[in-house]
Amino acid sequence: MTGPRMTEEALAEASQVCERIMDAVGRAFVGNRLLLRKVLAASLANGHILFEDYPGLGKTLLAKAFARVIGCGYTRVQFTPDLLPADILGSRVWRQRDGAFDLVKGPVFTNVLLADEVNRAPPKTQSALLEAMEERQVTIDGETHRLALPFLVLATQNPIEQEGTYPLPEAQMDRFMFKLSTGYPGSLEMESEILNRRIAWKQDDPTNELAAAVEPGQFVGLQEVVEQAIYVDPSILEYISRIIRATREHGKVEIGSSPRGGLALLKASRALALIHGRDFVVPDDVKGMAVDALAHRLILRTEVVLEGGQEAEVIEEVVRGISAPTELKDRPHL
């Protein structure tokens, strides 16, 4: 379930790189450190993120800042009702001079795709992202093209915008590893800091001034560490499985988490372990990622929704109701 154990020096260095990434993003985005840690964890786990919150809370700013800081190429697409799949994927264009069709690649051919207000595009356009998000490839006119690694989709949407929007289908929601909320500033000091930084920036978008905290290859290396070198004990796997199954058996839930939700929780827990400087997962890693990895995968019963029930509350109930393992069953390389 894992490769050779990392040295303490390698773990400390990886953890320091993670802290450096979060510090760099924090120079542009004023917000909760925990939110930055979740964004980093999902990205290290090679997962996509959907930011949902009210307008003006920094969703796009956070996504742009993170894309710049991890040193990868990125493109931004403003989703609109008239956006077509070809506007994202690209198309073949006839070149009369050459007497042949040339592939004009769309903005999806990047490392980080910022899909702004993703729910403003119609379902046909939204579905154009499904293959790219799941398989890291796109098919244009019957020809498959692999995407460069890493490939991450950071999407935003506003929950109160109804006119001209198209709710994301469950199949697409399931492909986002996390659904996060930036939220309002948590204190008066944080609110004032936003204003102070705006004066210092002398511009509304400071991300152009951000320098990369890591090289692209270094970030991909961290993703490989998460995938190959973070140990997951059988007791942790059983713990995650119990959580997933409990979401399907909960009385308030019509449809529970898919197996993909369990994989997302596993990957995110491994990434969080690395951020904390460990090469093995503990139950607190799972607990810390459960709501963000699973809540958006649930469909509650109609009567529960009408009574104001929330998916996150169900996940919290599930986690509280399942005993976490108190010791690892097998850690042969400790």
Key features of this structure:
single chain; 334 residues; alpha/beta; Rossmann fold; Helicase, Ruva Protein, domain 3; 2 domains; two-stranded antiparallel sheet
What would you say this structure looks like, in words?
By secondary structure, this protein is of the alpha/beta class. The protein has two domains: 1-229, P-loop containing nucleotide triphosphate hydrolases (Rossmann fold, 3-Layer(aba) Sandwich); 230-325, Magnesium chelatase subunit I, C-Terminal domain (Helicase, Ruva Protein, domain 3, Orthogonal Bundle). The chain has 14 helices and eleven strands. The strands form four sheets. A five-stranded parallel beta sheet has the order 2-5-8-1-9. Strands 3-4 form a two-stranded antiparallel ribbon. It has a two-stranded antiparallel ribbon with strand order 6-7. A hairpin with a 4-residue loop joins β3 and β4 (100-105). α1 (8-26) packs across α2, α1 (8-26) crosses α3 (59-69) and α11 (259-275) packs across α12 (283-294). It is globular and about 70 Å long. The mean pLDDT is 88.
